[in-house]
Amino acid sequence: MAPTLTIDFEAIFRMAPLGMCVSQNRRIITCNDAMAMMFGYSKEILIGESFLMLYPSSDEFERMGARIVPILNATGWYSDERIMKRSTQELFWCHVSGRSLHPEDPHAAGIWTFDDLSAKRSVSPEMTAREREIAALIVDGKTSKLIARQLELSPRTVEMYRANLMKKLNAASSSELINKLLRIAN
Q: In the chain, what are the helix, strand and coil shares in percent, each to the nearest 5?
């Protein structure tokens, strides 16, 4: 007979290789060491704070909060790649995934993971907040029409942002733009 294995879920959470946290109303209730290290804060500073401190701007925090609600309502979970901000103010690409613990109220409580993508993808500092948001959706393979619908913009406005991104990144085509957005950091 095999010995019974005792599973220490608290230790698993604390030592997980991905950043993890539990949230309540978009505030960090608890987080693991990997999350604190990734963002450059101590766990004590993060606990109790709003996710706002991890976003490049309050506009991006508000837009993301509004954007994920219908998706969480429909599926119970959410995942994307977005630009986040460290304690040093450095911006970096991060893969964020989460699940609502209360499907009837998506922001009430959730569990979230954060994976630092900065070793694979650099951030272009000259991008505006809206350009970063649209760039993340372009990288996800969304068309201008889908991006417009998701962000409640006109498709023409999204096309203007796409054109600005192409100019800033010196990309001659949409595929080159995606490749440049995905480029490996130095």
A: 45, 20, 35
